[in-house]
Amino acid sequence: MAPLILNSLEKRFASAAPAVRDLSLTVQQGRFLALLGPSGCGKTTVLRMIAGFEQPTDGSILLGERLLADAATMLPPERRNMAMVFQSYALWPHMTVAENVGYPLTVRGVGKDRARQKVREALSAVRLEAYADRRPAALSGGQRQRVALARCLVTEPDVVLLDEPLANLDRHLRQEMEETFREFHSRSGATMIYVTHDQSEAMALATDVAVMSEGRLLQVAPPEVIYARPEGRIVGGLVGQGSILSVRMPAEEAVRHLDWPRLRDALLHCNVAAPRSDVLVRPQDVILDGSGIAAAVMSSFFEGERYALRLQLADGQPLRAFSRQAVREGETVRVVLQSGWRL
Ligand SMILES: Nc1ncnc2c1ncn2[C@@H]1O[C@H](COP(=O)(O)OP(=O)(O)OP(=O)(O)O)[C@@H](O)[C@H]1O
């Protein structure tokens, strides 16, 4: 089936700097891509260009070989076979759940019996068969979101676009809905593009994560790769709870995975002639160990299974760590940095 191809995409609004610049990305059919980045980095603009609500000012969007949009061409949203799920659900308050879900079929002139069948299937996919006759006002936030998903399922879209669909839900419901999204994805087989600024949501849901900053795409890779081998400071800082240490290291060392002897050398015997490198260290790789280097405990919070520590190294750099044993603020501990990743 057809991949979704974004080709050197650019969007400029009036005089401002481009909201999206030179963004190229191919999403294979059936993948679940999370567009992740801080507020204002251009995620929604990319989604709206894919949906057909905004026209690119440069570059192009294709579904397989079919051109959807470029600076001169603009296929309207209803001819793209895509469905968009919004944060606000956008349900009709005067229609029942079944009528809301069936609405796109009515618009397309699908016969009554066939439509009823499809609505039943879609409601069963999101486990809402029992709610078919209710109105949206009589549903919880999570149930409304599921109605919005069912409405998108009935049209059998090639691509489903989701703009922060869980932003209005509480934490418990978010987790439940993440499960629904995963199930929805495997059932529908549709390509899904999911906009979020929540890295844990992106990591939990997506098959691929595309990290954006200031309109640019910085890295696209499966969640495990983004986590273990982030490219650069911004991606490293955005994903996981790592600390980024600045250390001096010989430039010729191409190694990116750094073990404790290398890190200890760099931290203890600061070679002023060597250039600075940014090194990402995850808190779970910081081990309290008497053979390690000294660090002052700036704060210690009990999180349930462990203590979350904010440490400060002798040169003043902050470092996050976890500890199973109680550690008090103001103490000095010794830590071993089991591994680091050079950004
Ligand atoms: N219609 C518009 N007219 C002018 N500027 C716009 C318009 N839409 C978006 N922008 C600007 O483009 C930039 C990117 O906005 P966009 O909504 O794509 O970011 P985002 O990453 O989705 O942010 P958020 O997570 O806050 O929704 C912002 O600087 C925004 O102000």
From TrEMBL:
<keyword id="KW-0547">Nucleotide-binding</keyword>
<keyword id="KW-0472">Membrane</keyword>
<keyword id="KW-0410">Iron transport</keyword>
<dbReference type="InterPro" id="IPR003593">
    <property type="entry name" value="AAA+_ATPase"/>
</dbReference>
<comment type="similarity">
    <text>Belongs to the ABC transporter superfamily.</text>
</comment>
<protein>
    <submittedName>
        <fullName>ABC transporter ATP-binding protein</fullName>
    </submittedName>
</protein>
<keyword id="KW-1003">Cell membrane</keyword>
<dbReference type="InterPro" id="IPR027417">
    <property type="entry name" value="P-loop_NTPase"/>
</dbReference>
<keyword id="KW-0813">Transport</keyword>
<dbReference type="InterPro" id="IPR003439">
    <property type="entry name" value="ABC_transporter-like_ATP-bd"/>
</dbReference>
<keyword id="KW-0067">ATP-binding</keyword>
<dbReference type="InterPro" id="IPR015853">
    <property type="entry name" value="ABC_transpr_FbpC"/>
</dbReference>
<dbReference type="Pfam" id="PF00005">
    <property type="entry name" value="ABC_tran"/>
</dbReference>
<feature type="domain" description="ABC transporter">
    <location>
        <begin position="4"/>
        <end position="239"/>
    </location>
</feature>
<dbReference type="InterPro" id="IPR050093">
    <property type="entry name" value="ABC_SmlMolc_Importer"/>
</dbReference>
<dbReference type="InterPro" id="IPR017871">
    <property type="entry name" value="ABC_transporter-like_CS"/>
</dbReference>
<dbReference type="InterPro" id="IPR008995">
    <property type="entry name" value="Mo/tungstate-bd_C_term_dom"/>
</dbReference>
<keyword id="KW-0406">Ion transport</keyword>
<dbReference type="GO" id="GO:0005524">
    <property type="term" value="F:ATP binding"/>
</dbReference>
<keyword id="KW-0408">Iron</keyword>
